[in-house]
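User: Look at the shape:
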Amino acid sequence: MLRPKLPDMPQPTGQVTPPAVVEPTTITPGLPVPPPAPAAPTPPVRPTVQLTPGTALALVGGGTAVVLVVGTVLVSMLLAVAVTATSVAVCAVVLRSLLASQHRR
Protein backbone atom coordinates (compact mmCIF):
# COMPACT_ATOMS: atom_id res chain seq x y z
CA MET A 1 0.00 0.00 0.00
CA LEU A 2 2.77 2.43 0.86
CA ARG A 3 5.19 1.27 -1.78
CA PRO A 4 5.97 3.81 -4.49
CA LYS A 5 4.70 2.96 -7.92
CA LEU A 6 7.45 3.13 -10.50
CA PRO A 7 6.46 4.16 -14.01
CA ASP A 8 6.76 1.58 -16.77
CA MET A 9 9.49 2.25 -19.29
CA PRO A 10 7.90 2.67 -22.73
CA GLN A 11 9.21 0.31 -25.38
CA PRO A 12 10.18 1.76 -28.76
CA THR A 13 7.67 1.13 -31.50
CA GLY A 14 8.44 0.45 -35.13
CA GLN A 15 11.79 -0.55 -36.55
CA VAL A 16 14.79 0.64 -34.58
CA THR A 17 17.89 1.38 -36.65
CA PRO A 18 21.35 1.77 -35.22
CA PRO A 19 22.92 5.24 -35.54
CA ALA A 20 24.65 5.96 -38.82
CA VAL A 21 28.44 5.67 -38.90
CA VAL A 22 30.16 8.97 -39.62
CA GLU A 23 33.37 8.73 -41.60
CA PRO A 24 36.16 11.15 -40.64
CA THR A 25 37.09 13.70 -43.24
CA THR A 26 40.29 15.58 -43.81
CA ILE A 27 40.48 19.29 -43.17
CA THR A 28 41.81 21.35 -46.03
CA PRO A 29 43.13 24.80 -45.25
CA GLY A 30 41.18 27.59 -46.87
CA LEU A 31 41.98 31.18 -47.62
CA PRO A 32 42.91 33.30 -44.59
CA VAL A 33 40.08 35.54 -43.44
CA PRO A 34 41.05 39.21 -43.18
CA PRO A 35 40.46 40.75 -39.74
CA PRO A 36 37.22 42.70 -39.48
CA ALA A 37 37.42 46.43 -39.91
CA PRO A 38 36.97 48.38 -36.65
CA ALA A 39 33.43 49.65 -36.29
CA ALA A 40 32.80 53.33 -35.89
CA PRO A 41 31.95 54.22 -32.26
CA THR A 42 28.26 54.77 -31.78
CA PRO A 43 27.03 57.57 -29.56
CA PRO A 44 25.56 56.45 -26.25
CA VAL A 45 21.82 55.93 -26.31
CA ARG A 46 21.32 57.34 -22.80
CA PRO A 47 23.20 60.29 -21.40
CA THR A 48 25.70 59.45 -18.70
CA VAL A 49 24.84 60.42 -15.13
CA GLN A 50 27.04 63.17 -13.80
CA LEU A 51 27.31 63.62 -10.07
CA THR A 52 27.35 67.20 -9.00
CA PRO A 53 28.27 68.10 -5.41
CA GLY A 54 24.59 68.66 -4.61
CA THR A 55 23.60 65.27 -6.03
CA ALA A 56 26.37 63.50 -4.13
CA LEU A 57 25.31 65.23 -0.92
CA ALA A 58 21.69 64.18 -1.51
CA LEU A 59 22.76 60.57 -2.09
CA VAL A 60 24.84 60.54 1.09
CA GLY A 61 21.97 62.07 3.06
CA GLY A 62 19.48 59.57 1.68
CA GLY A 63 21.77 56.64 2.44
CA THR A 64 22.32 57.89 5.97
CA ALA A 65 18.56 58.23 6.49
CA VAL A 66 17.96 54.69 5.27
CA VAL A 67 20.66 53.29 7.57
CA LEU A 68 19.23 55.17 10.55
CA VAL A 69 15.67 54.01 9.88
CA VAL A 70 16.68 50.37 9.39
CA GLY A 71 18.87 50.51 12.51
CA THR A 72 16.03 51.97 14.55
CA VAL A 73 13.64 49.24 13.41
CA LEU A 74 16.13 46.49 14.20
CA VAL A 75 16.95 47.89 17.64
CA SER A 76 13.27 48.24 18.49
CA MET A 77 12.64 44.63 17.46
CA LEU A 78 15.56 43.49 19.62
CA LEU A 79 14.19 45.51 22.53
CA ALA A 80 10.74 43.93 22.09
CA VAL A 81 12.29 40.45 22.19
CA ALA A 82 14.27 41.33 25.31
CA VAL A 83 11.20 42.71 27.12
CA THR A 84 9.18 39.62 26.17
CA ALA A 85 11.92 37.28 27.37
CA THR A 86 12.19 39.17 30.67
CA SER A 87 8.45 39.02 31.27
CA VAL A 88 8.36 35.29 30.53
CA ALA A 89 11.26 34.73 32.93
CA VAL A 90 9.50 36.71 35.68
CA CYS A 91 6.29 34.73 35.13
CA ALA A 92 8.25 31.47 35.35
CA VAL A 93 9.86 32.51 38.65
CA VAL A 94 6.52 33.56 40.12
CA LEU A 95 4.83 30.31 39.05
CA ARG A 96 7.70 28.26 40.44
CA SER A 97 7.50 30.12 43.72
CA LEU A 98 3.72 29.62 43.93
CA LEU A 99 3.95 25.93 43.13
CA ALA A 100 6.79 25.39 45.59
CA SER A 101 4.96 27.15 48.44
CA GLN A 102 1.77 25.20 47.70
CA HIS A 103 3.70 21.93 47.67
CA ARG A 104 5.16 22.59 51.15
CA ARG A 105 1.73 22.91 52.77
